[in-house]
Amino acid sequence: MARTPSPTIARAPAGGRGSPNRRVRRWLSGELRDLRPAIARGTARCRADRYRKHFTAFAHACLLLFHGLGATASLRQSYAAFGLCTGLVALSGLGVAPAAPAAPAGDDEERLGVSYSQFAASNSSRPALFLSEVVPALLRRLRQLGGAGDLPYPLELCLLDSTFVRLGAELAGRWLPAALPHEKRGVLIQVQYRPALDLPDHVVVLPTPTNDCLGLDAAVLDDADRLTDLAGQTLVFDLGYYSHRRFQRLRAAGVHWVVPLKAQAQATTDAVRPVQPAFPGWAPARITVLADRRVTLGSANNRAGAVLAGVRVVTAEVLPQPAADRRGAPPQRYTLLTDRWDLAAADVVQLYLWRWQIELFFKWLKQHLHLDRLLGYSANAVHLSVWLALILHLLVTLAARAAGLARRTPTLLARLRLLLPLLTPADLLDPPTLPHQLPLPFLFPDPAPPATPPPPT
């Protein structure tokens, strides 16, 4: 069998103008060091280091972070290239390999304290919960920093949706229902996303086929603490979560919602409200409100549903974005159901239009953080892949906040990928001498040198 070539990572000359700024490296190394206490708490919680003397959970996390931040195409290539990142090798404690026969001539792989087969098997055998404490720790830090202030989304806006990740039929057949057709073999990753902070508040991994309403139960309605935390917030979701009984439970808990009205839903108009103008500055030219009604939703004869009195139905026509308009896209008509009476009708429509931000978040996870490149095909490896993608997203978001950017970008992710193999053992093992929340200077041009004053005459 042909041997997978080891990827090469270009190194900048030490001390040259092209080398990364020392402060940037200090920032990144400080973030990596700060993960150790959270990983230790998660490891103790699920006993992830039980019967593992050499390959600890922290070393496993270092390999996973290198794989996630790197641009390699496979787990094997990431393992082969890990030895080139001397800083992470020293931090993980994998720099000294156990006694083994001499490597064959021409073998250019770096020797590590763990074999590739052990690394790959650990993705299925080590409980994925060992990374579970990292996400809350990063979320707390990001919430303390707050939003960047340049994003237009209200802080109380929460988006709820799910994305599908396909699994191989042969490899996933042991834990997914065997009767599933090939195109439905996979998992649904349901995310509650807050666009004002660019943060996922809650994530649930569900096997398919799972009804979205059951995902809403698992994520919100059956969790009393989460339901309390969402009081006063506005959940925006699509028709997959449509359920009158669940809307009633949300309203009873003080959680607002905006959702499209089902075409076959029975809605009795109680009053017709005058159409209000859009809030200034919220693109009123795109949104034309056609009707604003107070309705009673549902039928008393439907035992499986619920009757909702005093809810609001807004009908509006929305023009396409300029790029879509140039392609000839027609205007879209929306009929939205909500319990928000304190907003103008156009503002209710705008809340639903912002739901597209969660689709962009899913695209970011899959296209740039490679969520769909799973670490394995067992249930544990799938959960570990989700934890890893969320941690990478939070790290990049933290870098954007430290740099004063409105949000994370693919360019920022590419910069961090270039910096990672350039970290040295001194960067990661020495005590930090600079706070790692300073702005990242590589995002900004170097200041011009002060002008030399003219000599006295």
Description:
- The structure is a single chain.
- With 457 residues, this protein is α+β, with helices and mostly antiparallel strands.
- It has a domain of 109 residues.
- The chain contains 16 helices and 9 strands.
- Strand 4, helix 10 and strand 5 form a beta-alpha-beta unit.
List the helices and strands and how they pair.
Layout: H1 22-46, H2 57-69, H3 75-82, H4 86-92, H5 116-125, H6 134-145, E1 157-166, H7 169-172, E2 186-194, E3 199-207, H8 212-221, H9 224-229, E4 234-236, H10 244-252, E5 256-260, E6 267-272, E7 287-297, E8 308-318, H11 322-326, E9 332-338, H12 345-353, H13 356-368, H14 379-402, H15 410-419, H16 425-429
Parallel strand pairs: 1-4, 4-5
Antiparallel strand pairs: 1-2, 2-3, 5-9, 6-7, 7-8, 8-9
Helix pairs in contact: 2-4, 6-14
Give the overall shape, derived from the CA principal axes.
elongated
| Sequence of secondary-structure elements | HHHHHHEHEEHHEHEEEEHEHHHHH
Mean pLDDT across every amino acid position:
80
- List unreliable stretches of 5+ residues: 1-21, 105-110, 432-451
Query: What is the C-alpha radius of gyration, as a whole number of Å?
Result: 26 Å
